[in-house]
Amino acid sequence: MIPERKPGRSAGAPVFFNRKLTMPTAVDLQVQLNLDSELISAFYLLLQKGVRLPVATGCSVIKLLNDQLGIAEAYVLNRITTLFLDGKPVDDLTSSVIDNGSVLALSAALPGLVGSTMRRGGHLAAMREAISYHPPQAVTTGSGTVTIKLFNIPMKEIGPLLVERGVVLTGSELMTLVADGGARFQKGCDSVTLNGRSSPCAEFTEQLPTIMAPQQTALVKVRWNEAVSQRTGVPPAEGAS
Amino acid sequence: MDKILRINMGASGGPSQNIEEAGEFSALGGRATTSMIVAKEVPPDCHPLGAENKLVIAPGMLSGTTGAMSGRISVGCKSPLTGGIKESNAGGQPAQVMARLGYAAIIIEGKPASDDLYKIHIDKDKVTISVDNSLKLMDNYPLVEKLRKEYGDKAAYMSIGSAGERKMAAASIACTDPELRPSRHCGRGGVGAVMGAKQVKAIIFDDSGCTHRQPKNQEKFKAANRAYVEGIRKHAVSGEGLPAYGTNILTNVLNEAGGYPTRNFKTGFFEGGTKISGETQAELEIQRGGLATHGCHRGCVIQCSGIYNDKDGKFLTKQPEYETVWSHGGHCGIDDLDTIAMLDYLDDNIGVDTIEMGVAIGVAMDGGVIEFGDSEGAIRLVRDEVGKGTPLGRILGNGAEMTGKAFGVDRVPVVKGQALPAYDPRTVQGIGVTYATSTMGADHTAGYAVATNILKVGGDVDPLKPEGQVELSRNLQIATTAIDSTGMCLFIAFPILDQPETFDALLDMLGAFYGIKMTGDDVVALGKKVLTLEREFNQKAGFGAEDDRLPRFFKTEPLAPHNITFTVKDEELDELYNWS
């Protein structure tokens, strides 16, 4: 088993979703999956590849994480020590700007020379200067979509809470999630609520290809059968459905 | 560790042995010991597979003690892969056992006149060197199984597979882990071929009746060790990331950075990266009843390894490391963890370096031998060609450079004949400097993220200024050489990089054990001394400034997605060894 983070073993601060994210509904469907918390791992591949969230753009990375996603600043500073914005390592969280279509990847501290090199503002950051993020001259505000990728420790700690709040998936991604989960998914999925109507999981998965085209989008929220905080060791999201 | 065992395999009448006082080497270890002996005793212009080359084995300074993370073993020689000096190290049990037996080094020299194959058994009372031709061309897993029946489960084993006997330049030396699996390898540089040239199939260490090595100051040592372990456990990398995901935690991040060399260094992003990431690998290992957290030797606190089971839940191999997953994965266009794990097992069994083997296969793919992404083809090349010593297998088993020549490939990622590891130097220019200038050939561990900031090697460098790639690399190489000389696992680099008190604890451990006062300056001086000796050896072996270069395509071919080239100038590279 991957050891759960032991209290007091890390200097990191806890995640705390201190604000409710307002999620626009410019999607084709609204899906709520009622899942056994064991199925958290079914989302790991998806979280590594990236999930999309509608956000207000033109803000800094720290504003996005703190104000919009509700991740406590102390957690970001202490635990998310390696960040990439559009594939470029970020050193300054306040001057880096989220734009429509931005891809933000979050990771804990990493081993190896290159792991240390990628670290935010680290001693060896100069070694990857050629790819480092530099803020744009002008910033425009608005709304749009950002893709969040979660790796390693943040994947385990933030991932369950992020899908609890809701992420935008394509029909193709949702079908892959269900198919890869296989019998395990069927066993751990209590029911599904589709556009407000509840149905058994088996019925939903069977009908999914006819409900959604691969390119259509759904706002997918997960209700875990036990508080994810019990599994992740972090407090629950405020206002989680 | 007050003695050195010298074995002359070429003595008239059969191999001879002599035990000498360790002298200056009694308070040294690892790379310092192997490189100093090789530099002193091996003619730099000798043939690596000839009688004049020597194979030197040395445990770390604190191996065999109760000190944590002290189980690395170093092997040194003139490399058949690079033609220069080589130190290659591994985990596993042999370092601990060898140190408890009291040996600061074993030097194997000469070459038998006959074609007999030998094994060497070492216990507290005697050294027995015996002919055992029944072991000929056995691979590591069945070999160790056979030897265990004779020598038992309390011994630690170092061995070569068929690749070492065939003197392939990518051949490794296997070290058994706590479960007696030959899964830890001194991989780089063909050290297994040198052992094969000496016709030594296995070394068996049995420390029955021996105790832990005792420090000069027991109480201080215990206190320092406690602080050191605490520092390792509280750090996010060594206490959380590595235990949970192993070194393969790096796949996603290198891919995201556009620095993941894909399909023989053609792009920096592999579309199948998430399928073979450490996160995915750990989850699969747990689902199949394996382990995502496991130590490669007793006394390991970090536990960055794991157990990879097959689809039926049976042991297949130890958790492949990041560089292995990359070399057989993205480098070859393969995104299937089971294929990569099988290749890792085959490499360990046959006894070849996983980096060199994977890179050679990728170069062969570029040369049209098989297609990129051909999982079955890659397994066939290793199992049926390298493993059986066919002409094609011997080409591949002699490394990426040889493979490139054989198949007319003009994109061959090597420096000094050794394959580049899993980090594209165009993305992280500083690591390119280390690849180019290291005495070892392209080696990601030659300039590790050791605490240059704490050591103040070369003064402070502004972390956010691009100037000084060469200076950073130089400082890292000096510091890493010193850590390699302690025989400590390199993964202690992170807590000692970030936590000065953990670095102090390490120095206190060394000081309390040997009854001396060690400072950061002593560490730096040792690193410089060893690097200088290695550099001089290579110069005498014929290496010049023109060998401290990356292959030209890194300067001329922009790497997507960042579209950047390696821009450090040759004259800057030439400054690396100019230190006061």
Automatic annotation (TrEMBL), chain B:
Domain Aldehyde ferredoxin oxidoreductase N-terminal per the UniProt entry, residue ranges: 1-209
Superkingdom of source: Bacteria
GO MF annotation list: 4 iron, 4 sulfur cluster binding; electron transfer activity; metal ion binding; oxidoreductase activity, acting on the aldehyde or oxo group of donors, iron-sulfur protein as acceptor
Record bears the keyword Iron-sulfur: yes
Pfam families: AFOR_C, AFOR_N
UniProt family annotation: Belongs to the AOR/FOR family.
InterPro entries for the chain: Ald_Fedxn_OxRdtase_dom2, Ald_Fedxn_OxRdtase_dom3, Ald_Fedxn_OxRdtase_N, Ald_Fedxn_OxRdtase_N_sf, OxRdtase_Ald_Fedxn_C, Tungsten_al_ferr_oxy-like_C, W-dependent_AOR
Protein name per the record: Aldehyde ferredoxin oxidoreductase
Cofactor: [4Fe-4S] cluster; tungstopterin
Gene3D superfamilies on file: Aldehyde Ferredoxin Oxidoreductase Protein, subunit A, domain 2, Aldehyde Ferredoxin Oxidoreductase Protein, subunit A, domain 3, Aldehyde ferredoxin oxidoreductase, N-terminal domain
